[in-house]
Amino acid sequence: MTDKDFQVDYIVVGAGTAGSVVARRLLDRTDATVLVLEAGQADTNPAIRDPLRMHELWHGAEDWDYFSVAQSHACGRRLHMPRGRVLGGSHALNATIYVRGNPADYDSWAARGDSGWSWRAMEPLFRRIERYDRDDSGVKGTAGMLDVLSDYAVDPIQKAIHAAAEQTGVPANPDYNSGVQDGVGRAQFTLRDGLRQTTADAYLKPALSNSRLTVLTGARVHRVLVRRGRAYGVAGSIDGRAFVASARTEVVLTAGAIDSAALLLRSGIGPAQELRAAGIEPIADLPGVGRNLLDHWLVPVIFGAEREIAHTPGLPHAQTQLFWRSESGLATPDVQPLHFSVPLYEPWMSGPANGFSLMAGLIRPHSVGRLTVAGAHGPTLIDPKVLAAPADLRRLVEAVRLCRQIGAAPALRAWNATERYPGPAVRTDSDLRDYIRRTVITYHHVCGTCALGTGPEAVVDPALRVRAVEGLRIADASVMPTITTGNTNAPTIAIAERAADLMAPAR
User: Fold this and answer.
1) How far apart are the first and last CA of the chain?
2) Out of the domains of life, which is the source (predicted)?
């Protein structure tokens, strides 16, 4: 017997980047009732709104505060993997950077069995999402749901970093979202009037007065309920009180690449042999659940500065970035350094408070990880296998070298910039590899654990329906079969828009 039962047409698990979009589109396009279940609480923390206070949210109430298992190729460290546990999800914790990705990303998805995932099909979805402040290219959206800021004056230190990158041979690129990514330029942000705007702000909150929508916060979903091969609801708890929710039409998982996969596993949907070993009775043998875990990786290159660095209120610390290819012949950029106008020291580091960080980012990793669960009520075991592929270490070495060259370029001499880390003692390739293993961190872009496709490892079909279970769909970053070239928030929104089209075509 439960304390509370719900019956609706659609259940959406997770009110983050994707869930907010799916719920809103279902309301707009159907007469259905929609129940959104969010494990976190309302997004009332002032640090969420201020893009300069992102770091305050990590390890706090709004963060699931996940850690990987010990990483054998990263000095045995357990890496912090922040994930949003709040209305707005990880979009409430991220750096607000908006990157569509590379057209080749989506064409590779389409090659897995459905032209609906090609760039030609996905590009209009981005225009539907976007409300850009300006569009000189003619390829952007200016009347969509989500504000994107691209026209602003960067801080002086960011202007100097931009110039320094050009001095090292990186071309200027005024708009990486116009089709060509390569080069250095301003980042584009999901901000409105200097405040973070999540998809919960843009899509979900304006619909809260709709009588067909119910949003429950503090609602932890423990398992998907399946009867005779069909998902008919979910079971969970709210503040320790059990509930069951039934869906007449579909259950949609939008809990993110960690929690959507973990929920399937705890529900008995996944690799049957592994589930039995964990004490979970399998109800659908899907070997790909939890496999194909992908992420982007960052390595800090940190400089102290004598000239005072100022920060414009309402703009993030990372205002410029670049896309670059670590070797010739690559089809897309594989490196994306982010430029933070603060020194991002690790706990064991020390240095002046006035400085900047050129975060060497690897965005086309070869290493592939996985996640499992330690029983129906046990923890989620996350193993990204960072740097397991030798190519990843080699390309990060090149990315760090580029960042060191940028920091030493003439444009930054007026700041009296001094490299603190890796520092002058790190000289040889072997030294650099050791430094990378000691400092590599996640870019917070985990994806791929419920990959779409048609092969034996695919978890969802090209229509995002979970294989072997009717009435169950997944619409978040977990369905990415390969990781996109750049930040994954915008592609996740586009996945949710695509899911809505599949479930309820626009009227």
Assistant:
1) 41
2) Bacteria
The active-site residue out of 73, 162, 296, 445 is 445
Is residue 311 annotated as a catalytic residue, yes or no?
no
The rounded Cα 48 to chain-centroid distance in angstroms is: 16
Q: Answer for the pair 102, 484: CB distance below 8 angstroms, yes or no.
A: yes
Is 221 annotated in a binding site? The answer is yes
Rounded CA separation 410/254 (Å):
47
Q: 151-187+297-364+388-439 adopts what CATH topology?
A: Cholesterol Oxidase; domain 2 (3.30.410)
Q: Tell me: is residue 8 an annotated ligand-binding position.
A: no
Neighbours of 428 (CB within 10 A): 8
Two structure tokens written together for 215 = 């949003």
Q: CATH 3.30.410.40 in the chain, residues?
A: 151-187+297-364+388-439
At 309-324, the pLDDT tens digits run 999 999 999 999 999 9
21-80 residue pLDDT tens: 999 999 999 999 999 999 999 999 999 999 999 999 999 999 999 999 999 999 999 999
CA atoms of 177 and 134, how far apart (whole Å): 13
Residue 443 annotated as binding site: yes
Distances (CA, A) of 317 to 197, 322, 402, 443: 17, 15, 20, 15
Q: What is the maximum span of the chain, computed from C-alpha positions, in angstroms?
A: 71
Tell me which CATH code domain 1-46+81-147+194-288+449-507 carries: 3.50.50.60
For 255, residues 6+ apart whose C-beta sits below 8 A from its C-beta are 13, 14, 16, 19, 39, 221, 263, 476
